[in-house]
Amino acid sequence: MSDRVLVTGLSGFIASHVAVRLLEQGYSVRGTVRNLAKGQAVAAKIRAAAGGNGELELVEANLASDEGWDEAVKDCRFIQHIASPFPADAPDNREGLVLEARAGAQRVLERGFAAGAERIVMTSSVVAMTGQPGRGSHMTITENDWSDPDWKPLRAYAVSKTRAELSAWAYARAQGLEERLVTVNPGLVFGPDSFGNGGVSLGIIKSMIRGRMPRVPRIAYPVIDVRDCAAIHVRAMTASGAGGRRLIAGGETLWFEDIARVLRTEFPENDNLPKGPLPNFLVKFASLFDDDVKAVIPDLGIYHEADAAYVSSLTHVIPRPAKEAILAAATGFL
Q: Taking a C-beta distance cutoff of 8 angstroms, is the pair 244, 178 a contact?
Protein backbone atom coordinates (compact mmCIF):
# COMPACT_ATOMS: atom_id res chain seq x y z
CA MET A 1 0.00 0.00 0.00
CA SER A 2 1.49 3.34 -1.06
CA ASP A 3 1.37 6.54 0.98
CA ARG A 4 -1.50 7.78 -1.14
CA VAL A 5 -4.41 9.60 0.49
CA LEU A 6 -7.84 10.01 -1.03
CA VAL A 7 -9.38 13.42 -0.35
CA THR A 8 -13.07 13.57 -1.29
CA GLY A 9 -14.51 16.90 -2.38
CA LEU A 10 -11.05 18.25 -3.17
CA SER A 11 -12.35 21.60 -4.41
CA GLY A 12 -13.95 22.42 -1.04
CA PHE A 13 -12.57 24.88 1.52
CA ILE A 14 -11.34 22.43 4.16
CA ALA A 15 -10.39 19.72 1.66
CA SER A 16 -8.08 21.95 -0.37
CA HIS A 17 -6.17 22.96 2.76
CA VAL A 18 -5.96 19.32 3.84
CA ALA A 19 -4.55 18.43 0.41
CA VAL A 20 -1.85 21.09 0.65
CA ARG A 21 -0.78 19.86 4.06
CA LEU A 22 -0.65 16.26 2.86
CA LEU A 23 1.44 17.19 -0.18
CA GLU A 24 3.82 19.22 1.95
CA GLN A 25 4.33 16.16 4.14
CA GLY A 26 5.20 13.99 1.16
CA TYR A 27 1.94 12.12 0.66
CA SER A 28 0.52 11.48 -2.79
CA VAL A 29 -3.02 12.83 -3.03
CA ARG A 30 -5.92 11.64 -5.11
CA GLY A 31 -8.82 14.06 -5.01
CA THR A 32 -12.40 13.49 -6.04
CA VAL A 33 -14.29 16.23 -7.85
CA ARG A 34 -17.73 16.34 -9.43
CA ASN A 35 -16.32 17.73 -12.68
CA LEU A 36 -12.72 17.15 -13.82
CA ALA A 37 -12.52 20.27 -15.96
CA LYS A 38 -13.69 22.56 -13.15
CA GLY A 39 -11.58 20.72 -10.57
CA GLN A 40 -8.34 21.37 -12.45
CA ALA A 41 -8.42 25.08 -11.56
CA VAL A 42 -8.41 24.42 -7.82
CA ALA A 43 -5.92 21.57 -8.25
CA ALA A 44 -3.47 23.95 -9.94
CA LYS A 45 -3.69 26.35 -6.98
CA ILE A 46 -3.21 23.47 -4.53
CA ARG A 47 -0.09 22.29 -6.36
CA ALA A 48 1.31 25.83 -6.33
CA ALA A 49 0.58 26.27 -2.62
CA ALA A 50 2.34 22.99 -1.87
CA GLY A 51 5.45 24.21 -3.66
CA GLY A 52 5.51 21.32 -6.10
CA ASN A 53 5.79 18.74 -3.34
CA GLY A 54 4.02 15.39 -3.62
CA GLU A 55 1.80 14.15 -6.43
CA LEU A 56 -1.80 15.23 -6.97
CA GLU A 57 -4.26 13.49 -9.28
CA LEU A 58 -7.99 13.93 -9.81
CA VAL A 59 -10.80 11.45 -10.30
CA GLU A 60 -14.43 12.20 -11.02
CA ALA A 61 -16.88 10.86 -8.44
CA ASN A 62 -20.19 12.01 -7.04
CA LEU A 63 -21.61 11.18 -3.61
CA ALA A 64 -24.95 10.39 -5.22
CA SER A 65 -23.58 7.70 -7.55
CA ASP A 66 -21.56 4.48 -7.30
CA GLU A 67 -19.59 5.40 -10.40
CA GLY A 68 -15.92 6.22 -9.87
CA TRP A 69 -15.54 5.21 -6.25
CA ASP A 70 -13.76 1.89 -6.82
CA GLU A 71 -11.12 3.73 -8.83
CA ALA A 72 -10.97 6.50 -6.25
CA VAL A 73 -10.17 4.31 -3.23
CA LYS A 74 -7.75 1.95 -5.02
CA ASP A 75 -4.29 1.78 -3.42
CA CYS A 76 -5.06 4.52 -0.87
CA ARG A 77 -3.48 4.03 2.53
CA PHE A 78 -5.71 6.66 4.14
CA ILE A 79 -8.93 8.39 3.21
CA GLN A 80 -10.05 11.90 4.09
CA HIS A 81 -13.80 11.92 3.48
CA ILE A 82 -14.60 15.63 3.50
CA ALA A 83 -17.19 15.97 0.72
CA SER A 84 -20.74 16.69 1.87
CA PRO A 85 -23.81 18.14 0.14
CA PHE A 86 -24.35 21.81 1.00
CA PRO A 87 -26.41 23.58 -1.67
CA ALA A 88 -26.53 27.38 -1.80
CA ASP A 89 -30.24 27.20 -1.09
CA ALA A 90 -31.06 24.74 1.66
CA PRO A 91 -34.08 22.54 0.89
CA ASP A 92 -37.34 23.12 2.74
CA ASN A 93 -37.44 19.42 3.50
CA ARG A 94 -35.31 18.96 6.62
CA GLU A 95 -34.42 15.44 5.42
CA GLY A 96 -33.61 16.68 1.93
CA LEU A 97 -29.81 16.37 2.19
CA VAL A 98 -29.75 13.14 4.17
CA LEU A 99 -29.89 10.61 1.34
CA GLU A 100 -26.82 11.96 -0.49
CA ALA A 101 -24.80 12.64 2.67
CA ARG A 102 -25.50 9.26 4.25
CA ALA A 103 -25.21 7.21 1.06
CA GLY A 104 -22.03 9.05 0.09
CA ALA A 105 -20.40 8.28 3.43
CA GLN A 106 -21.51 4.66 3.14
CA ARG A 107 -19.96 4.36 -0.32
CA VAL A 108 -16.64 5.76 0.87
CA LEU A 109 -16.50 3.61 4.00
CA GLU A 110 -17.53 0.36 2.33
CA ARG A 111 -15.18 0.70 -0.62
CA GLY A 112 -12.38 2.29 1.38
CA PHE A 113 -12.20 -0.38 4.04
CA ALA A 114 -12.64 -3.15 1.45
CA ALA A 115 -9.68 -1.72 -0.48
CA GLY A 116 -7.53 -1.84 2.65
CA ALA A 117 -7.51 1.75 3.91
CA GLU A 118 -5.79 1.81 7.29
CA ARG A 119 -7.90 4.67 8.59
CA ILE A 120 -10.70 6.85 7.29
CA VAL A 121 -11.07 10.40 8.61
CA MET A 122 -14.56 11.75 8.02
CA THR A 123 -15.49 15.40 8.36
CA SER A 124 -18.64 15.95 10.39
CA SER A 125 -19.55 19.14 12.26
CA VAL A 126 -20.33 20.48 15.71
CA VAL A 127 -23.90 20.79 14.44
CA ALA A 128 -23.99 16.99 14.78
CA MET A 129 -23.37 17.57 18.50
CA THR A 130 -25.23 20.69 19.57
CA GLY A 131 -28.74 20.15 18.20
CA GLN A 132 -30.58 18.98 21.26
CA PRO A 133 -33.27 20.55 23.45
CA GLY A 134 -32.65 21.66 27.03
CA ARG A 135 -29.06 22.87 26.58
CA GLY A 136 -29.52 25.94 28.73
CA SER A 137 -27.71 29.19 28.02
CA HIS A 138 -24.22 27.61 28.17
CA MET A 139 -23.40 24.28 26.54
CA THR A 140 -20.04 22.59 26.94
CA ILE A 141 -19.71 20.40 23.85
CA THR A 142 -18.06 17.02 24.38
CA GLU A 143 -17.35 14.20 21.94
CA ASN A 144 -20.17 12.21 23.54
CA ASP A 145 -22.80 14.81 22.60
CA TRP A 146 -25.12 14.05 19.71
CA SER A 147 -27.72 16.18 18.01
CA ASP A 148 -31.19 14.69 17.87
CA PRO A 149 -32.03 14.55 14.14
CA ASP A 150 -35.71 14.08 14.98
CA TRP A 151 -35.81 17.35 16.94
CA LYS A 152 -38.04 19.51 14.76
CA PRO A 153 -36.16 22.83 15.04
CA LEU A 154 -33.09 21.33 13.32
CA ARG A 155 -32.78 22.27 9.65
CA ALA A 156 -31.54 20.26 6.67
CA TYR A 157 -27.76 20.67 7.03
CA ALA A 158 -27.64 19.76 10.73
CA VAL A 159 -29.96 16.80 10.16
CA SER A 160 -27.83 15.51 7.27
CA LYS A 161 -24.52 15.82 9.14
CA THR A 162 -25.98 14.05 12.18
CA ARG A 163 -27.57 11.20 10.28
CA ALA A 164 -24.48 10.70 8.08
CA GLU A 165 -22.16 10.52 11.07
CA LEU A 166 -24.48 8.24 13.03
CA SER A 167 -24.65 5.94 10.00
CA ALA A 168 -20.86 5.92 9.61
CA TRP A 169 -20.29 4.90 13.22
CA ALA A 170 -23.04 2.27 13.04
CA TYR A 171 -21.41 0.74 9.97
CA ALA A 172 -17.91 0.79 11.49
CA ARG A 173 -19.24 -0.77 14.68
CA ALA A 174 -21.10 -3.51 12.82
CA GLN A 175 -17.97 -4.37 10.84
CA GLY A 176 -15.64 -4.24 13.84
CA LEU A 177 -13.80 -1.30 12.29
CA GLU A 178 -14.39 1.47 14.84
CA GLU A 179 -10.66 1.87 15.52
CA ARG A 180 -10.10 2.60 11.83
CA LEU A 181 -12.61 5.47 11.72
CA VAL A 182 -12.16 9.00 13.06
CA THR A 183 -14.58 11.89 12.67
CA VAL A 184 -13.59 15.55 12.86
CA ASN A 185 -16.30 17.96 14.02
CA PRO A 186 -15.34 21.57 13.21
CA GLY A 187 -17.01 24.68 14.59
CA LEU A 188 -16.95 27.92 12.60
CA VAL A 189 -14.08 27.54 10.12
CA PHE A 190 -12.38 30.84 9.31
CA GLY A 191 -8.87 31.55 8.01
CA PRO A 192 -7.44 32.41 4.57
CA ASP A 193 -9.52 31.80 1.46
CA SER A 194 -6.38 30.74 -0.41
CA PHE A 195 -8.19 28.98 -3.23
CA GLY A 196 -11.29 31.12 -3.70
CA ASN A 197 -13.56 28.39 -2.38
CA GLY A 198 -14.44 29.68 1.09
CA GLY A 199 -17.18 27.81 2.86
CA VAL A 200 -20.35 28.91 4.60
CA SER A 201 -18.47 30.06 7.70
CA LEU A 202 -16.45 32.54 5.64
CA GLY A 203 -19.74 33.84 4.32
CA ILE A 204 -20.37 35.26 7.80
CA ILE A 205 -17.21 37.39 7.60
CA LYS A 206 -18.00 38.42 4.04
CA SER A 207 -21.53 39.46 4.95
CA MET A 208 -20.26 41.58 7.82
CA ILE A 209 -17.62 43.31 5.69
CA ARG A 210 -19.94 43.92 2.73
CA GLY A 211 -22.71 45.43 4.87
CA ARG A 212 -25.16 42.57 4.48
CA MET A 213 -25.38 42.08 8.23
CA PRO A 214 -25.96 45.52 9.79
CA ARG A 215 -26.65 43.87 13.14
CA VAL A 216 -25.83 40.37 14.31
CA PRO A 217 -27.87 37.65 16.01
CA ARG A 218 -26.84 36.59 19.50
CA ILE A 219 -25.12 33.36 18.53
CA ALA A 220 -21.84 31.87 19.77
CA TYR A 221 -19.82 28.97 18.36
CA PRO A 222 -16.23 27.74 18.76
CA VAL A 223 -13.90 29.06 16.05
CA ILE A 224 -11.13 27.18 14.23
CA ASP A 225 -8.70 28.41 11.58
CA VAL A 226 -8.90 26.27 8.44
CA ARG A 227 -5.14 25.65 8.65
CA ASP A 228 -5.52 24.18 12.13
CA CYS A 229 -8.60 22.25 11.05
CA ALA A 230 -6.56 20.76 8.20
CA ALA A 231 -3.72 19.91 10.58
CA ILE A 232 -6.14 18.03 12.85
CA HIS A 233 -7.45 16.07 9.87
CA VAL A 234 -3.97 15.03 8.79
CA ARG A 235 -2.76 14.11 12.27
CA ALA A 236 -5.95 12.10 12.82
CA MET A 237 -4.77 9.63 10.16
CA THR A 238 -1.85 8.38 12.21
CA ALA A 239 -2.18 9.75 15.76
CA SER A 240 -2.04 7.04 18.40
CA GLY A 241 -5.32 6.92 20.32
CA ALA A 242 -7.31 8.85 17.71
CA GLY A 243 -8.95 5.77 16.21
CA GLY A 244 -12.59 5.45 17.16
CA ARG A 245 -12.80 9.05 18.40
CA ARG A 246 -14.78 12.14 17.46
CA LEU A 247 -12.37 15.07 17.37
CA ILE A 248 -13.86 18.50 17.99
CA ALA A 249 -12.02 21.07 15.85
CA GLY A 250 -12.70 24.20 17.84
CA GLY A 251 -10.78 26.83 19.75
CA GLU A 252 -12.13 29.99 21.38
CA THR A 253 -15.87 30.54 21.40
CA LEU A 254 -17.02 33.95 20.20
CA TRP A 255 -20.39 35.61 19.94
CA PHE A 256 -21.07 37.04 16.50
CA GLU A 257 -20.84 40.45 18.16
CA ASP A 258 -17.29 39.56 19.30
CA ILE A 259 -16.38 38.72 15.70
CA ALA A 260 -17.83 42.03 14.54
CA ARG A 261 -15.89 43.86 17.26
CA VAL A 262 -12.60 42.33 16.07
CA LEU A 263 -13.37 43.58 12.57
CA ARG A 264 -14.44 47.05 13.73
CA THR A 265 -11.24 47.42 15.75
CA GLU A 266 -9.02 46.31 12.88
CA PHE A 267 -10.91 48.16 10.13
CA PRO A 268 -12.40 51.28 11.76
CA GLU A 269 -12.83 52.96 8.37
CA ASN A 270 -15.28 50.29 7.20
CA ASP A 271 -18.76 51.67 7.81
CA ASN A 272 -20.41 48.49 6.56
CA LEU A 273 -19.56 46.46 9.64
CA PRO A 274 -22.32 45.46 12.09
CA LYS A 275 -23.19 48.16 14.59
CA GLY A 276 -24.37 45.83 17.34
CA PRO A 277 -26.57 42.85 18.22
CA LEU A 278 -29.99 42.18 16.75
CA PRO A 279 -32.67 41.58 19.40
CA ASN A 280 -33.80 37.97 19.61
CA PHE A 281 -37.42 38.80 18.85
CA LEU A 282 -36.38 40.39 15.55
CA VAL A 283 -34.30 37.32 14.62
CA LYS A 284 -37.31 35.10 15.33
CA PHE A 285 -39.54 37.36 13.26
CA ALA A 286 -37.08 37.29 10.34
CA SER A 287 -36.99 33.50 10.53
CA LEU A 288 -40.61 33.42 9.44
CA PHE A 289 -39.51 34.61 6.00
CA ASP A 290 -35.89 33.38 5.67
CA ASP A 291 -34.87 29.72 5.95
CA ASP A 292 -31.22 30.67 6.55
CA VAL A 293 -32.27 32.65 9.61
CA LYS A 294 -34.60 29.84 10.68
CA ALA A 295 -31.59 27.49 10.81
CA VAL A 296 -29.95 29.47 13.64
CA ILE A 297 -33.04 29.80 15.85
CA PRO A 298 -32.25 26.65 17.91
CA ASP A 299 -28.87 28.15 18.87
CA LEU A 300 -30.05 31.66 19.63
CA GLY A 301 -28.68 32.97 22.94
CA ILE A 302 -26.66 29.81 23.69
CA TYR A 303 -22.91 29.97 24.36
CA HIS A 304 -21.40 26.81 22.84
CA GLU A 305 -18.00 26.03 24.29
CA ALA A 306 -15.86 23.15 22.99
CA ASP A 307 -14.25 20.77 25.46
CA ALA A 308 -11.44 20.03 23.01
CA ALA A 309 -8.27 19.78 25.10
CA TYR A 310 -8.15 16.05 24.36
CA VAL A 311 -7.83 16.85 20.62
CA SER A 312 -4.66 18.87 21.21
CA SER A 313 -3.31 16.03 23.35
CA LEU A 314 -3.98 13.47 20.62
CA THR A 315 -2.94 15.51 17.59
CA HIS A 316 -0.50 18.06 19.07
CA VAL A 317 -2.41 20.78 17.20
CA ILE A 318 -3.07 23.89 19.30
CA PRO A 319 -5.60 26.18 17.58
CA ARG A 320 -4.35 29.69 16.94
CA PRO A 321 -6.24 32.66 18.41
CA ALA A 322 -9.68 33.23 16.91
CA LYS A 323 -8.70 36.82 16.08
CA GLU A 324 -5.97 35.58 13.74
CA ALA A 325 -8.42 33.30 11.94
CA ILE A 326 -10.97 36.12 11.59
CA LEU A 327 -8.48 38.62 10.18
CA ALA A 328 -7.00 36.04 7.78
CA ALA A 329 -10.50 35.47 6.43
CA ALA A 330 -11.32 39.19 6.26
CA THR A 331 -8.25 40.03 4.19
CA GLY A 332 -9.70 38.18 1.21
CA PHE A 333 -12.84 40.34 1.19
CA LEU A 334 -11.24 43.77 1.37
A: yes
Q: Residue 36 burial by CB count (10 A; 0-12/13-18/19+): exposed, middle or buried?
A: exposed
Q: How far is 119 from 127, CA to CA, in rounded Å?
A: 23
Q: Which residue in 161, 206, 284, 323 is the catalytic one?
A: 161
> Is 152 tagged catalytic?
no
Tell me, what amino acid is at 6? L
Question: Is the four-CA dihedral 257, 263, 264, 270 of positive or negative sign?
Answer: negative
* Cβ neighbours of residue 195 closer than 8 Å, sequence gap 6 or more: 11, 13, 16, 42, 45, 46, 49
| Residues 251, 224 contacting (CB under 8 angstroms) | yes
Q: What is the pTM of this model?
A: 0.96
* Beta-carbon count within 10 A of 89 CB: 7
Residue 170: HSE in the Cβ half-sphere, 13 Å Cα cutoff: 9
Print pLDDT tens along the chain (334 aa): 469 999 999 999 999 999 999 999 999 999 999 999 989 999 999 999 999 888 999 999 999 999 999 999 999 999 999 998 766 566 778 899 999 999 999 999 999 999 999 999 999 999 999 999 999 999 999 999 999 999 999 999 999 999 999 999 999 999 999 999 999 999 999 999 999 999 889 999 999 999 999 999 999 999 999 999 999 999 999 999 999 999 999 999 999 999 999 999 999 999 999 999 999 999 999 888 887 788 889 999 999 999 999 999 999 999 999 999 999 999 988 7
Contact between residue 71 and residue 108 where contact means Cβ atoms under 8 Å apart? no
Q: Assess contact for 11 and 42: CB atoms under 8 A.
A: yes
